[in-house]
Design a protein that fits this description.
4-stranded antiparallel β-sheet; binds zinc ion; alpha+beta; 12 strands; single chain
Length: 215
């Protein structure tokens, strides 16, 4: 017999950047769903593409970090670190990572990076600058919840949110610090809006199935 106890969810410790490397955004040409990954955008509806050829990671050595003003994650440090790092090989992650050494404490740390060299950015690539640091294409999977906007990057993000918010008991996992779940805005979790968020997530899942957005 099925247990009728409360549904529990444990925080897996995932960080938002680990799943946000790939996202569904609005196509700048037809407004349909487009895949945005590592600086390249490809529309699923009209096949519009921009952002250069798919990055050949093997040839990349130094790349710019995704964050504009990265900081050293070492405890007791937090000093600014260069926004350029050495590409991390292997790992098999979708998200390109780069290693940076902190000039203040000497610690090395890994950061999400873009498949772009400092030279490419330094050449005055205004379009790149606008896209990644200021506007960026708007996210495709969004719903208004009162005065707030619920935005989902991709299916992994959707399912993590649905499982977490849908549970009756949410427990801290083994990972300390600001995990994705620990950083969720308060309005998503308060009793009044949580039901609306869960309903919106169900709605987004149906939209993804309907439009064939598998991942
Ligand atoms: Zn399009
Ligand atoms: Zn440091």
């Amino acid at each position: 017999m099925q247990s009728t106890g409360p549904i529990r969810a444990s925080d897996s410790g995932v960080r938002l950047w680990q799943i946000a490397g790939f996202k569904w955004v609005h196509c700048p040409r037809c407004d349909g769903p487009a895949r945005s990954h590592a600086g390249r955008l490809v529309c699923k509806s009209c096949a519009y593409a921009e952002g250069g050829p798919a990055p050949n990671r093997r040839r990349l050595r130094e790349v710019v970090l995704e964050k504009h003003h990265p900081r050293c994650p070492a405890r007791q440090c937090g000093a600014p670190v260069p926004a350029v790092g050495r590409v991390v090989r292997g790992g098999g992650s979708e998200q390109l990572m780069a290693v940076v050494r902190c000039p203040t404490c000497g610690q090395t740390s890994q950061h999400p990076a873009l498949a772009l060299t400092p030279a490419e950015v330094g050449r005055g690539n205004r379009r790149f600058w606008n896209r990644f640091y200021r506007r960026g294409p708007s996210l495709y999977l969004t719903r208004g919840i009162g005065a707030h906007t619920l935005a989902v990057y991709n299916r992994t993000h959707l399912e993590l949110l649905a499982a977490w918010l849908g549970a009756d008991l949410r427990e801290r996992g083994p990972e300390a610090g600001l995990t994705m779940m620990a950083r969720l805005p308060r309005w998503m979790k308060v009793a009044g809006s949580r039901d609306r968020v869960i309903k919106a997530l169900t709605d987004i899942r149906e939209q993804m199935d309907r439009e064939g957005l598998a991942d």
